Amino acid sequence: MFGDISGMMGKLQEAQQKVEETKKRLNTVLIDESIAGGAIKITVTANREVKAITIDESLLEDKEELEDYLIVALNKALKRAGEINEQELAIAAKSGMPNIPGMDMFK
After folding, report:
1. Can you give the pTM of this predicted structure?
2. Are 48 and 89 in contact (CB under 8 A)?
3. Distance CA 23, CA 10 (A)
4. What separation in angstroms does the CA of 14 have from each of 8, 9, 10, 17, 18?
5. 38: helix, coil or strand?
6. Distance CA 45, CA 41 (A)
7. If we measure between CA atoms, which residue out of 63, 62, 52, 56 comes closest to residue 36?
């Protein structure tokens, strides 16, 4: 019986290591989003860290419009990053999980 528990603990540690490796890799996955015909460009990582924001000078005259565009562009980029992040981490966690009856939450 203890052999099975030891094996499960090893599998859980492997799953945790795969998740941590995936988190590090997601720092290198870049998501680009543009809005207003490319007047605003946002780059974020799959870990939802903003890496770059480029704003065309034509938008600098209307502060309110610029703020609205930034909110929309950031939300779109962060939503895509979150979706990629969740999918990748679920795959990493599932691949290392031991087969425990009733613990199929990653399917």
Report:
1. 0.72
2. no
3. 20
4. 10, 9, 6, 5, 6
5. coil
6. 14
7. 56
